[in-house]
Amino acid sequence: QVQLVESGGGLVQPGGSLRLSCAASGSISDISAMGWYRQAPGKQRELVASERNGGSTNYADSAKGRFTISRDNAKNMVYLQKNSLKPEDTAVHYCNAEVTKATPIIHRLLYWGEGTQVTVSS
Questions:
Q1: 119 vs 3, 110, 111, CA distance in Å?
Q2: Which of 17, 56, 98, 116 is most buried, taking the most CB atoms under 10 A from its CB?
Q3: What are residue 3's DSSP bridge partners?
Q4: 7 contacts 94 by C-beta, under 8 angstroms
Q5: Cβ partners under 8 Å of residue 12, min gap 6
Q6: Peptide bond before 104: cis, by omega within 30 degrees of 0?
Q7: How far is the C-alpha of 34 from the C-alpha of 15, rounded, in Å?
Q8: What is the pLDDT of residues 21-80, one digit of tens each?
């Protein structure tokens, strides 16, 4: 079991910046990747950015060049630096952890935080 707690959301103006933080606890040794998803009103949840244990990253096209994901394994934290924010970035942002287990068979589970609201508006 992994518990995730997000923080850092809030109201920012277009063009502004925000840094989201997520603290992981529980069976953190089994985490194989961490990332950020977002869900705007009336829309499906979608990937923003993720980073695997080996350091490889994956970004949504809308995030490339503006957002940066980073992990601090010593503190069991993952961050999302969001720059040049646009109104369409408004969404509830969820921290995600992928857990990979080797027994009884190799399998993966996903865990989610409760979300933090990011609102980009004048």
A1: 25, 26, 24
A2: 116
A3: 25
A4: no
A5: 18, 85, 118, 119, 120
A6: yes
A7: 26
A8: 999 999 999 999 999 999 999 999 999 999 999 999 999 999 999 999 999 988 999 999
